[in-house]
Structures are given as structure tokens and as C-alpha cells.
Specification:
The complex is a heterotrimer of chains A (360), B (344) and C (503). With 360 residues, chain A is mostly helical. Chain A contains 14 helices and two strands, in the order ααββαααααααααααα. Chain B has a single domain, classed as ABC transporter involved in vitamin B12 uptake, BtuC, CATH 1.10.3470. Classes of the chains: A mainly alpha (360), B mainly alpha (344), C alpha/beta (503). Chains in contact: A-B, A-C, B-C. At the B-C interface, helix 8 and helix 9 of B face helix 2, helix 4, helix 5 and helix 6 of C.
Amino acid sequence: MTEKKRAAASGGMAGLFRNQIFIPIAALLLLAAFNLIVDPSFFKITLGTNSEGYSVLTGNLMTILDYGSEVAILAIGMTLVTAASGGQDISVGATVAIAGSVILRILVGLGGDGTLQAPIIVAFLAACVVSMLFGAFNGVLVAIFKIQPMVATLILYTAGRSIAAWINNNELPIVTDKTFTYFGGFIPGLPVPTPFFLAVVCVVITMLVLKFTNLGLYTQAVGINASSSRLNGLNPTFIKWLSFVILGLCVAVVGLIKTSRLSTINYSVIAKDIEMDAILAVALGGNALSGGKFNIPASILGAYVIQFLTTTLYKFQVSSDALPAYKAVVVVLLVVISAPAVKEKMAALSKKMKTQKEVG
Amino acid sequence: MAKLKLAGVSAPSSKKMTDSNLLLLITVVIFVVMYAGAMIFLQKGFLKPQTFFNIMNANAALIVTSCGMSLVMITGGIDISVGGVVALVSMCCAVYLDYAGGNVFVSLLIALAIGLAFGAVQGYLVAYLDIQPFIVSLAGMFFARGMTTIVHTAPFNVENEAFVALKGTRITVPGMGTVNRLGKYVDAYVEIGVIVAILVVILLFFVLKWTRMGRGFYAVGGNRQSALMLGINVKRTRFMAHLLCGLLAGIGGYIYFLHVGSGSASHASGMEMNAIASSIIGGTLLTGGVGNIFGTLVGVLSLSTIQNIVSSIGLDQAWWTGITVAAMLCLFLIIQSVILSRRH
Amino acid sequence: MKENAVLEMRNIHKSFPGVRALHQVDFTLCEGEIHALMGENGAGKSTLIKVLTGVYEKDEGEIYLKGSEKPVSIKSPQDAQNLGISTVYQEITLCPNLTVAENMYIGRGKSGLTNWRKMNADADRILTNLGIPARATQQLSDCSIAIQQMVAIARAVDMDCKVLILDEPTSSLDESEVEKLFGLMRDLKARGVGIIFVTHFLDQVYEVCDKITVLRDGELVGEYVIEDLPRVKLVAKMLGKELNDMEEIKDENQVYKGPEERVFEAEGLQSDAGIRPFDFYIRKGEVNGFTGLLGSGRSECVRAIFAADKVIAGRVKKNGKPVKIAKPLDAMKNGIAYLPEDRKRDGIVGDLSVRDNIILAAQVLRGFFRPFSRAEANRFADEYIKLLEIKTASADTPIKSLSGGNQQKVILARWLLTHPEYLILDEPTRGIDIGTKIEIQKLVLKLASEGMSVTFISSETDEMLRTCSRLIVMRDRKVVGELSSDELTQSKVMETIAGGNVG
């Protein structure tokens, strides 16, 4: 083989590997193959009737579509935050609790009997405002005070659930209105869970925004080199801050889904460990956790792969409390594989093997 | 050597405090003012020395883990797995003591081994594979928490006799006792954990100030690239910091276990946060290179004093603790950020 | 090993993914000689140095040191240090959070414990001996950059090294400091230390060096005694071709001949970067420049014009109309473009493609809600890649994988794409090879002839004399003079910088 040809061949291979979306797809195929071998019934989808009497699709794949959508919505914001600030927001789980608490407080109020005191849209918009405010708070710490994102968000990670409990004075308001259950369940007549549609809406809006504005270019430029971006007329502080506010919006949507599922809230359990899933989705999407370039479709696919993993683990009787241990292993494997130091070593190794082959 | 005079280079600026000392000073002043304020305005328990010793007793584990956290933070890293490690250590030791009928000494070894294992793995990933410490230790935290419930789900108290005896051991502090309402003199006491914690603080102070490794921590935290060029083995230094942090989390875990005497998956929840907050309040810079182990001790004391104050003025609902710690951390982060941006 | 050689590197090979950085390079350093290592950017100088100091591991080859029969193995900077190889880099490689004394002693010696008193006393003695105005107990970040560089040298000197590597140490020093450094180098040379000196400044090479080794494209061109290699030949060796257009690039026909109204005017302009208020103007089609020693405030002046630093006083006019420029975007909207001094920190956006780097400024000007289409962006990128002859695999290549000169051209393309009326170039030719330097100088003159106003800053006076028709001279952060037409000679500029025309 001539020098050039070999370079071209390795370039082709490298091109495939370098394509970000390759990582989540490979992970997805791996998981699917595993389940297919162990138990093909994993993929069975049945059309049944749920407790409300609607005909709905059920099965593991529907569960993945349903719960994966929560992570996917968060992954959109998390990807932007990661790209712009080079860190992650670990307070999303806690702020989901706050958003949910706000929704319930407005819908039912303290000591309410469960009937709606306000339209759902009003409660949702209020939750949007509140979680964007908390996002803005994180954003201020990161963008203006230049505190590492993960430490800055550690503040709300700790205090968030307490704040959520405080909003409803530690009561657990229950919504009795049926329409409220639509957002986390099914809309009558539609057999696919609503969170999936909400995720689709969020994704479409995001893609449109990325297409018709410069959000993508600006965020990446700021994430890669803030100083240089400033001299090109950008405002890095504002863009970093903005990414946290956008994530706040995503959090509000998830807050709505989460509270709708239960029609109530459990402050210490709601959206527990979801920050881990969201970060994992970003990493699995092949985005550098140190910021810079990003790919939102890859993150979203990553989110569903994470849920695929979770559902698979549940199927193997892993309790929800023990789940993080397994995911932690996945995270470590992922970051190890994508670590530049490891990549270099692998490259050197494969080169050595090649030369050995040629000699032999 | 020839004498060369450099003309045209400005003279050294007037004597300035190093960043470490300035931040330490702020912390000490705030702590003293706070405690004195509590003594004057709240009185209640704050006048009794035992109140102070109780703060020490309750926070000995936090002091040790915070010291580990400070080491890692001085090298520019972070380790948020410490809370999880403490919980895992408590659970493993509890299970070993009660279900396997083990002896206390071996349980201590188990604690140290768990700590070292976490430190070694995380240190390797951070130092030799150059993965962000936050991500590594986030995974570490989830792994530890998950493992804790896998080891044993329900919380339970340890009834092993030797252990219970050790747990009850009190060391009298001479001359600090008070006369109680019945007119009887009550000795002031501390638990074993406090002695260990104080030894750890003294030892680490020595390590950081005088040893080659300790100075290496500061150099690596100040500027990793430069430290490499100055001939410091940066990888090993970072590895050692994480290893020590893991070890100290193991020791802290055992002290915690000794204090509460039970195993539970919800033990030490949010402890990583308290440890980070204590380090930061104690003047350790998040960006690395600046920090003082005495500062960390004062940081822990400040944090627990303010929690005591908050609960003794009637804000004793559970959520106030979290909010107070968060607010305190937030405040100090901002102070650091403002002071340091002004200075440089 | 050769008689009296302290260091011999034989047959050194080193490659990085896709790049062959060093190929069969030999290098010999003798006792008591100052040996210049020359070559353009990408020639392999830094790689060779880094192989020698253990930052990179060589793929092949041997390194011999005086007194050892077997080749030595250098796997880390620490190994190099222990073998008596000390290095002073262009960037400060000290820890800002430690004291001056610690920076001089950390990472050395075997002792596991620090004796603070002895260390401080030793450090103070050396600092006094070398005449460095710093105290041992001072925190390093409280010292100026020049002093920090001096501390780095003091550390290297004190290590009793056999080989001292100075990798572009003079780029942050002013002339008197450079003189002191040269004195120190000669002194060490007399004591038998072998010194490797890497620099871009030809004058300095001829002032202080004994021998020159030239590298080109990762290969050894040759080793020469300084007397045998006149400048023109050295440049030819470095470029690999005879260069005839070094001298005159000003073409009398290529001058702007339109109306000469003032495009930009500033009155009492001042920023928070510590410069005195200054007045300034530039006419249409003019090339002027700020000159002065490093640290004289020349960069700060143009940064104030572009509002890259915070502007705290002054009025500015654009084409005679008063305008407000409070941030870079305002300046850009007024048709001002600024190519910053520090390409890596302020210029390139490393991971982004060449295309995105080219369109960035124009895109920001166009607005958040009006992105260029893919086709438009490609068209712009291709146009400028061709125009400026940027050597890149494609427009999709990340800019960070380009050579310094080509990165600079991309940044230049970025600003040309905004079609500025007034272009500020702060050290556009620093650290890039001579061929590209001349291309950029020619381009500046061409743009000016087409009616663009250009402010040009360079550390090399002859480069400024070749391009500028008016020079504003700065000293100690204020404007001290202005030179034009026949005052534009090397000696007059030097005189003004030094203060000869005052009083």
C-alpha cells in the first residue's frame, strides 16, 4: 500500500469515528444487540388500554421514549451550557423540583382541595419565569463572578430541594384535575406518551433557533476562546449567562412533565440524579465536556440511549437507588474512551501493531 | 559571579500579603466575630465551652474530609465523591461489624482501604488520563451512593460491643467543665474523632508547608504547565492529592461512623458540599494554588457555628440548613472572586 | 563525542499525527559557546528544544552529554534538570502563586523538606548578585513580567547547568533588559556553559552568538560559524531560497492618490490599561504606526481606539463626525478592524474551522438573527483562502492545526471581510516566517493604495520604516513624538524613542 492510499484509508475510518453522532449510535446498537440476544421480548410493543380507558402503546420502547424525553429536553440546555461555559450545571434536578413546586403552588395553593385555582398555562409560565431566574442566578455566578460552573451550581444543587419544599411550606399539594395528567401521561386519542411530543416541540424550536440565528456560532466561539470572541464584537458574559437561562427554560418543561406524572411532588425524590443523565447524554453525544464545539442532535440521541440503559438495568431488577452506581461506571468508561491521553495511546498501539504486521 | 545591575526595571512593590494569608485572615476574623456575636447576643449554650466541643464532636469527620478536599483543591482539582465515600465506609463497616461479627480493627482497615481505592482510581483517571476531576468524582459520588444501597438498603444501628465501647469513649478536656443546674461539676469532653482530626490538621499543615510534595501541590495548582517545566512530576503530584483525599475521606468516614454508630444510605448526604464550602470559606481558592489547612479548620467551625446560630434563633426547619450552607458558600465565592480580580 | 562538546544530539526523529516535526537532525553544542538555533516557524526549533528538555519523547536518535559514554535518556523536564540542562522559555514558566525564592528552588535537589530560611537567604543573594530588583519572599505575581523572566533566568543560572537553553527569552524584555541578559550570557559563556539561543531577532544573533545551526522543515540545513554566514545568506538558508525583495517593497506607483480627509480622529483618548491621554488621527489611504519599546504603551493605544480595553476618557470622531466607541462592537460598526497582538489568546478561535474563523467578525456585524448561509460562508472562505494564499487542507480544517503564519492570514482575512475603512494591525508579523512577513507588508501597502487607512505596529523598526509614512513614537506610556517623510530613518526613530529630541 502506498503512503497516500493508507493515509486516505485511515482518514476514511477516522472520519467515521470522528463524526460525533457515531458514538451514541454505536452505544445504541450495542445496547439493542445485547437486549436482542438476552431477551427479544424487550422490544415488544403492545396496544393496550390504560387505567383511564384510553388505548395506548406500552412496552419498554415506549418507556424509553417517555422518560428519555425528559433527559432529552434537559440535554438541549445542558449542551449549550457545556459548550459556552466549559462546565455543567448540576443543579438541574433541584431546579426541576423548584419548577414543579411552583406549578403546584399556583395550581392548587396551600391547603387547597386539589381543584385548579389557575389555568395550567399560567402555572407553567410562572414556572418558566422562576426557573429562568434560577438559571440566571447560576449564570451570574459563572459569567460575571467567573466561578467554575459545577461549583457555582453546587449551591443550588444543595439548596434547591430545600427551596422547593419551602415554596409549598413542605406541604404536598395534589392536583385532582384530569387535564393536568396529560403532560406526563397521554392525551386522549394519542397512543404515544405526551413527553415525547413535548421533546419534539423543544427540539424543533431549538433546531429552528440554531438555523435562523447565530446562537450556535456565538456559543461555540465563546466556549473556545472568550477573549478572542470579545474582540470580535461578541459579549461572552452575556452568552454564557444566556445559556444558563435557556437551560432554565428546559428545566421548567421537565418540571411540568414530572409533576404531571404524579399530580403531586416529592421534594427529595423528584428528578433525582437527572443531572447525571443529562450530563451523560451530553458526553455520550460526543461533545467535549470542556466546552467549545457542540452537536445537539447527538446529545438528544445520547439522552434516549441513557434511558435505554436505565430501562435495561431496571429490567435486570436493579433498584432505582443502585442505578447510579452502574451509570457511574458507564460515565467513567465513556470519559476514559474519549480522553485524549487514551486516544493517543490507542493510536500509538495500533500503529505499532500495523508496523509489526508489515514486518512479519 | 559578575555583578550586573538592571537599570530601568521597577523596584519591588511595597510589602503585600500573599493571597493565602489574606484569605485566611478574612476567614478567621469572620469566625471570631460570628462566635463572639453568638456569645453576646444569643448566650444560651454559646457561653459554655462544651457547646464548642460539641461542634467539634459533630464535625470531626467533616474536618478530616475537608482537609482532603483542600489538598485536592490546592492542586486545582475537586473531589465531590467524599460524601458518598463516607456513606459507603459507614455502611460497609456497619455490615461487617454486625453481620460478619468482625472486629473493630479490621473495620478500620476496611474504611482505609475503601478510601484509598476511591482515591487511587479517581487519582489515576484525573492525573494520568487527564479527565476533568469534577466529572470523575461526580461518577465517584454516584458510584459510592449506589454501592451503599447495594451493600445494604435499610439503615440500622451497630450493636457490636467493642465498637459501642469505642464509640462511647470520651476524652476529658481539663479545666473546661461547667457547673450544671444541680450544682454538680460536669467535665467537658471530646470524642476520639476530634483528637484524630486535630492530628490530621497538624500533620497536613506540616506536609503542606515543609515537604517537597506539599509545595508541589501549590506549584501544580498555581500553574500546571509551569510546574512541569520547573521539574515537578505533575502527574504524580495530582495523583497523590487525590489519593490523600480519598484516604482522608476513608478516615473521615470512620470518624463519622464512630460518631453516629450506624449504617445508612442517606448518611453524610451533602457532605461533599459542606467540605467544599468549608475549604472555600477557609480561604482555599477554587482555581488552585492558594489555601491553608488551618483555614479549612476554621472554615468547618464557621460553617457549623452559623448552622447552630440559625437553628438557635428558631429557624430549625430542615431546609434552612441547606439554604444556609449554600448562602454562605455563595457569599464566600463572590468575596474571593471580587478580591482576587481586584488584586490581579 | 567531539572534543569539548557538552551536548550532542544525533539523528533525532520526532513526528506528531500527520506531521513530521524532526527528521534526522544532528546538533552539537560546545563548551563556552553561544549557539543560535534558527529556522522559520514550523522548522522544528521548538520541537528539538522540547525533545532535549524532556517535554516530548523522541521517536528515534541519541542524546549524548559530556562525561557520559552512553546516550542519556530524558523523559521529563525533571530528568533534563538533573542532567544539567536548564531552560528559560518565552512564556513565563513559573508559578505565580509562589514566592520568588520558591520559584527559584522548587523541583530541584533531593531534599524532601524545605528549609525556608536558607532558601530565602540564598535566593536574595543571587538576586542581588544579578541585580534583579525582587525580594525572595515576594509573591511572584506581584512582579512585572520582565522581572519574572529574570527570576526564571536566575533559577537556570543557579542550577549550575552545563547546557542553558534560552527559548526566545527576549520577546518580553526591553532593550536595556536585553543588554543585561546578553551580559549575563557572555559571563556564563566565559565559565564554560554551553548556551542554545533561540530567537527571531537577527540583530541579536549577530550580536551575541558564535555559531548558528539552521533547521528547515524539520531537517538540518547546516551548522555555521557566525563569521562565515552573512545575514542575507542566513535568511536564504532559513527560507531555502535566495531572497531579493527583502529591501525595497515600497512601490512609488502604489500610493493612494485620492482626497486625504481624516478617517479617524481621537482627542484625549485614555483607557484603563494605564496609558496617558493621547491625540491621534489617520488620513484616508495612510499607513501610520505606533513605535516605542515594549511596554511603552503602543499596543494599549490601539486597544483604546478599538475599545478592547475600557475607555475612560476622550472623544473620537469618525470621518469628522463624533461617535461613541465603548466596546469592540461599536468600533467594528464604525468600520474599524483590529488584529490583536496576541494571536493565540485574542485572535484565533482554535477549534472552529478556518471558514468560521474567517466569517466570525463579519457575521457578528451582520447580526444575531441574520446568519450567513452555508453557501455564502463557503464563498467568502474560498475567496480569502485564495486571495491571501492561506495554506490549509480545506475550509473545514480547524484553525489550530494551521501554522502560525497561516493562522495570522486567517485573522487578517476575517477583518478584511468586514471591509473596514480603518485597519489596525498590532504585531501582525510576530513569530511568523520571513516569507509571510513580506507578503503581509506588501498587502498592507496595497490596501492603503486602494484607500484603506492602516495603523501598523511592529517590534522591528525596519519593518515599520518600510511600510509606514508616519510614525507616532511612544515612551513610558505617552506619545513623545511624531516622525514623517525624511525623518523616517532608523537613527532618528531610535533617537526619539530614547528621548534625544527632548530638551
